[in-house]
Write a structure and sequence with these properties.
Number of helices: 11
Structural class: alpha/beta
Strand content: 15-25%
Order of helices and strands: EHEEHEHEEEEEHEHHEEHEHEHHH
Largest sheet: 6 strands, parallel
Low-confidence stretches: 111-126, 130-136
CATH class of the largest domain: Alpha Beta
Number of domains: 2
Strand order of the largest sheet: 3-2-1-4-5-8
Number of strands: 14
Helix content: 25-40%
Radius of gyration: 20 Å
Distance between the termini: 33 Å
């Protein structure tokens, strides 16, 4: 390995992946320079998440030069995500410059194959992909879960709310094409039931930033006018882990954060998520119909078992070392540099 390549670069295109990168940087002693690439528009409300890094850039054209100093790149984006085009372009550059790299298990929005490194995964449409056949996908995955997972980076703060259910957060990521239209409508009925059950509660729905009404055929804001539910993506206070006293969510990073910070959390999990819910012992806190949600809400208290391995697991150092061993002499041709530029402009 080239001794000049000493740093680790995190590539983050979302608040979720930026948050995970920050926790990893503060919860593990890497003993090397830490670099961060993120988007300029993410920094407005997230400046506090960059203080753990030695170097920061929001300009992708600086990366060809930066990679000559990097021994490992960790991508926070899900491969083949249409809204993570920069990560896909950077993935191409990383492979062509023979830089060791891996995709972090960012949340658990994919059903199946969440526990082991695999080239076969599900893309944003729910279709199986073979990442080894594409230059812009990432071939190694650092899984958070499973017996040999690297562990999930728990939030650094705890939610000390009593189970009052006065502030209810609803979170969805229906932009991933694994949900049927009928399942999204079932979820809507569950939201209506929640309002009926808690008529005086402050209920806020935060859809995933990439969840568009044209894609899921539902306009949340229009529907919620009749149910006194606020729908928002941007207001910072609703991103505070201390705000809600109850969370109802599809499988997502935000759900993991609330579970691991101690907030009562209920999961909407169609059958495709059965294996994952069972592995994490969330069967008693998950529903597929409004009636099942009603049964859960009738319990006096909702307590999540939280059998989620905490980062860093004993295997993290071993897996990082194994990845770095794959690093090779940095090599950047003119052809690769211009192809990288074409990816950025697409």
């Amino acid at each position: 390995m080239n001794n000049n390549r000493t740093g680790i670069l995190f590539v983050c295109e979302s608040v979720g992946s930026l948050t995970i990168a920050h926790r990893m940087a503060t919860q593990y002693k890497f003993d090397c320079p830490l670099y961060l690439f993120t988007l300029e528009n993410l920094l407005q409300h997230n400046v506090h998440l960059v203080d753990a890094f030695d170097y920061l850039t929001t300009e992708p054209y600086t990366l060809p030069g930066t990679l000559s100093k990097i021994k490992l790149v960790l991508f926070g984006a899900h491969e083949s995500s249409p809204h993570c085009r920069l990560s896909n372009a950077i993935g191409f550059l990383v492979k062509k410059t023979r830089t060791a790299h891996a995709s972090l298990q960012h949340g658990w929005i994919q059903p199946g194959l969440n526990f082991e490194t695999s080239t076969k995964r599900l893309d944003y449409r729910g279709f199986e992909t073979d990442n080894s056949k594409s230059l812009v996908h990432f071939s190694d995955v650092l899984s958070f879960f499973g017996e040999r997972g690297v562990g999930y980076p728990y939030p650094n703060e705890r939610n000390l709310h009593e189970d009052s259910r006065s502030k209810i957060l609803i979170a969805t990521n229906f932009n991933w094409g694994i949900y049927k239209a009928s399942e999204i409508k079932e979820f809507l009925e569950a939201v209506k039931l929640t309002r009926e059950t808690y008529p005086g509660a402050d209920i806020v729905h935060r859809p995933h930033p990439a969840e568009k009404k044209e894609q899921i055929q539902i306009d949340w804001q229009e529907i919620y006018e009749d149910y006194n539910v606020k729908c928002t993506r941007d207001i910072p206070k609703y991103r505070d882990l201390s705000w809600p006293s109850l969370v109802i969510s599809t499988p997502s990073t935000i759900a993991l954060d609330y579970v691991t910070s101690g907030t009562p959390t209920i999961f909407y999990t169609p059958k495709i998520f059965d294996e994952f819910i069972k592995a994490l012992s969330f069967e008693n806190q998950s529903f597929t119909t409004p009636e099942q949600l009603g049964s859960i809400l009738n319990y006096q208290q909702i307590k999540n078992p939280c059998k989620i391995l905490r980062f860093p697991s004993p295997y993290f150092a071993e897996k990082i070392s194994a990845l770095i061993e794959n690093n090779q002499e940095f090599e950047l041709s003119e052809e690769v540099f211009f192809r990288f530029g074409e990816f950025l402009r697409q």
